[in-house]
From TrEMBL:
Residues 363-425 form the Secretion system C-terminal sorting domain. It comes from the Bacteria. It comes from Aequorivita flava. Keywords: Signal. NCBIfam families: Por_Secre_tail. This is T9SS type A sorting domain-containing protein. Residues 1-25 form the signal peptide. The lineage of its organism: Bacteria, Pseudomonadati, Bacteroidota, Flavobacteriia, Flavobacteriales.
Amino acid sequence: MKKITFLTKSTILACFLMAAFAAQAQIELKVQTEMSTRFNDVNDNGFGVTVFDYYDFETNTFTPIESDAFMVQANNNDGNVAGYMFFDEPEFILQAAYRFNGVWNPIGFTAEQDPYDYDENTPYGISPNSQYVTGQSNIGNDYGGFLYNTQTEELIISLDPQGEASAAYAVNDNGIMVGWVDRPDSGGTLRVPAYRTLDGEYHLIPEGQLPTLTGINTINDINSSDVMVGDFDLRPFIYDRASNTFTSFDNPAGADSAAFASISENGVAVGFADVDFQTRDAIIYHPSLGDQPLYLKDVLADNGITVNTADGLLGTAIAVSPNGKYVTGWLNGPPPFAEGWMVYLDDLILGTNHVSQNSVSFYPNPVENILHLNSKEAIDSVAVYTITGQLVSNVTFNDNLTDINLSNLTSGVYLVKVASNGSVENFKVIKQ
């Protein structure tokens, strides 16, 4: 047997440590130390928004919002933003607004609203294509959601046809507004997760079932594939409108309740769990991480990143970027004064979507029936999941080139996990 010298051992160890360091260096957590730096949203470039500032993750710098704007709430990959402008500054009356191509535009009010009589439009979301802005509105004591079309400049106040209060928190490129509606209950009213389509119809989810527990019970976000996230009966859920699949998840260990607050285009869901009185810890879910949500701090710890906050927790994860690589939120404490944080996950969850960097290539995408796979190593197995984590196909192989028949699947976005030579690669496929 060839003797391994001390020098050889040292060289091997050094190479291992360098490789481990390189892998960990791709993941980075930045926690702010200044008060009132809580983040509301983030895009694929690490461009985030707080209440009064823009933020760049790479340089860890804040830039105050423009002087003609007052507050910001959401942004998208085009750098367009939803927020507030003054309607009457001396009277301190605000109006919903949006920044498009660097220019702020007021949304105003409908003819039925009287901003001098406390009628308001509170902006919460802007669609990825910048066509829609949404939020909550009121006309007197009637509360609902608003939808503003930036192309037609049409503002619609949408009230629940059953006369109960409602709200909208996010909107996608299809103009679907998501949030909640109230429904009469023996103890008063009960909030129910609901979404509104462009035809004005309200849809409660899951169909035919109302919550039994008083909680937030809302849809917090929706992606461009009409996949929604929120909480129902104090537990996080994912709803896929294309397949009408409602998936409720367990709360992480030690949590009394939990909710998903945001979902990426490739199915990364983030949110928070209530672990003590007025104390939260951020959670994350993706099928590649397991079948249940995990505490984000634990995922980071497994990759060499320690959360050194005052309570050892990350508090609230409020948003994930469309590509699933950035997650942001704020630490525990009063939200107006809370310190913000942002983490860059790089390819930790999904791996790269660029075929040229993968050992597995695939085509076509989108796919109608047959997905062709080609690997540098022999493929051991291929598993196909819905965006909500439901396993729909699991095939064992032992070849470098193979075909997967997806003809029996409904249209939508799927996660494909390819196992080969002890490694697993994940990529997203759109089924037409």
